[in-house]
Amino acid sequence: NAGVTQTPKFRILKIGQSMTLQCTQDMNHNYMYWYRQDPGMGLKLIYYSVGAGITDKGEVPNGYNVSRSTTEDFPLRLELAAPSQTSVYFCASSYFPTEAFFGQGTRLTVV
Amino acid sequence: KNEVEQSPQNLTAQEGEFITINCSYSVGISALHWLQQHPGGGIVSLFMLSSGKKKHGRLIATINIQEKHSSLHITASHPRDSAVYICAVHSGGGADGLTFGKGTHLIIQP
Questions:
Q1: How far apart (Å, rounded) are the C-alpha atoms in residues A108 and B33?
Q2: Do B102 and A96 touch (CB under 8 A)?
Q3: Are the Cβ atoms of B96 and A102 closer than 8 angstroms?
Q4: How confident is the model at residue B30 (pLDDT cuts 50, 70, 90)?
Q5: Chain B contact present for A96, CB below 8 A
């Protein structure tokens, strides 16, 4: 089992560019989440999904979009990147409310 | 909104010492997680608790629901235990993710 796989691991974007962070899980989990981690702060929820075709906003959704066309995939889209989106992004999945499994993270810098 | 506070924020100890990290939260929860994050690395789930105590190897996690408090203990600490330990809670019955503490940065010196 690969668990939760995130790509890319690192990325530098210019202001105004767009990109998609990929997240795939092979555990058939129904719940998937995107979090961002800023220095000195706790992780904050961006978006979550309770199953294919269903997504909802978390605490900090502005500037992001998601989709969930399959159980396995939950990509996060950044449109018009801004310096405030410089962060480390984590994807996670679970059979709520059991143990959560996290990806290795994507370190994004917007310059 | 649940507030999750961890203490201490930073902890440096000698190899072999008994380590305690504390977590308190403001609103009733359905479950509490302890997570481990190594520098530059991903996040690994250590425990999920809704009551009582759990043990895995040298790690012990306890929770007191009435006092809204949890502790993570490490016995016979080792330099490889150096990491950030994060407390996170599920509030209520919804699937809307976890609320996280800011983490405790632990360094175990040989």
A1: 26
A2: no
A3: no
A4: confident
A5: yes
Q: Which two tokens stand for residue A98?
A: 């059991």
In Å, how far is A55's CA from the nearest CA of chain B? 10
- The b/e string for B34-67 (b: 16+ C-beta within 10 A; e otherwise) is bbbbeeeebbebbbbbeeeeeeeeebbbbbeeee
Q: What percent of chain B has pLDDT over 70?
A: 95
- pLDDT of B29: 86
Is some CB atom of chain A closer than 8 A to the CB atom of B102? yes
Q: What pLDDT, on a 0 to 100 scale, did the predictor assign at position B40?
A: 77
* Residue-wise pLDDT tens digits, A59-81: 999 999 999 999 999 999 999 99
Instruction: Please name every residue paired with B52 in a beta bridge, in sequence order, or none if there are none.
Output: B63
Q: How far apart are CA A18 and CA A78, in angstroms?
A: 5
